[in-house]
Amino acid sequence: MVLRLAEVSEVSALERENRRLSRVVQELSILNDLARAIGASLNSQDVMHTIIARSLRAVDAEQGVITLVHRDPSHPTDTLVRAMVTSARSRAFHITDALLGWMQLNKTPLVVNDPTSDDRFSGVVWDDRIVTLLCVPLLVKTELTGILAVYNKKSKQHFDADDQRLLAIIASQSAQIIEAARLYEEERALARVLHQIALAAEIQQHLLPSKLPTIPGYQLTGTSLAAELVGGDYFDIIPMRGRKWSICLGDVSGKGIPASLLMSNVQAMIRLLARMDIPPCESLRRANELLVECTPAHKFVTFFMAVLTADTGELEFCNAGHNPPFHVTASGECHPLATKGAVLGMLREFAYKGGAVDLQPGDSLVIYSDGVTEALDEYEDEFGEARLVALLKECRAGSASQIQDAIIAAVRAHAGKHPQSDDVTLVVLKREP
To answer: pTM above 0.90?
Structure first.
């Protein structure tokens, strides 16, 4: 009789061991299958849907959700629900703030087999369709990056310790792969943005004059150095009838792509108006009306426009809130060209008033953006108008190119290691002696 009891006990032990080994083999098969399925994919949505589908089969659950946790430390409870798989015809369940908060604090698997009476979540209002749930953290170097949750065991039984252990292993294997796929997608998105910015910079460079025209009796040079890949400064030299030339320089508020888009709009307007032989003041009045209608209230453009009559040296100009250019005489006098006009795009109706000077042989016109005078050194000291005036007097005898190069060199020397904070644009016109 004793032997028979021992035999029965041994058989029972062998059956339990066989069931355990069978479950281990099944778990290894699930994990191996999951590793093959997600190892080669770099699409986070595909990876997460695969993980959820395999998890549902592994623990015999109806619905699963992967929720990625917001990475911004200032928003620790924000989430991005990224993927859901269900084998039942029901609405998607979502991680509640209570569950998220519990996971943020504990970062360990959680089984809730009776939501309404669980003391850990007293006061929490549960979706009445949730009967049981199992949550496990997605951890990357101890940081909670997401949560894998499965709901409602199909057999109407509770989730047990084996379910919890298996899902925790799936989560530990999957967290780094999900993170890698997410980072890969972010890198691809960033690459696309950088490509678009590079295209915008290339287009903008084509909007600026690639080669300045030759004006007999004059030297002419111009350049624009953007603080970012694309800038908001603009200059142009536009031929007009009767050996006249429109010379323009503008500065759009702000920097980067928004400023460059507005700059291209301004360029199209000014080119059209100049080719119609419209005087500077009337051109700026019309451009201002158009910009007021099509630009946001906080965007504006400072602009200087002049029309040179090459035969006589007469320069008719209008200044719309721009840094006053300098008329530098051969004797060393520097006269600012300001007409107190409002910036473009702010006031719907504004009567712009112009001025005129005569460029004598040896005289120069120096037009610049505020990136020149507002260039900062390491002590936050601006280059300033006084330094510019002193420099112009010193190098007035040089050619237009030499004057431009001297200004850029002086600004860079002043800034030193301080990064360029604004676009630097220059146009220098000199009447030959």
So the answer is: no
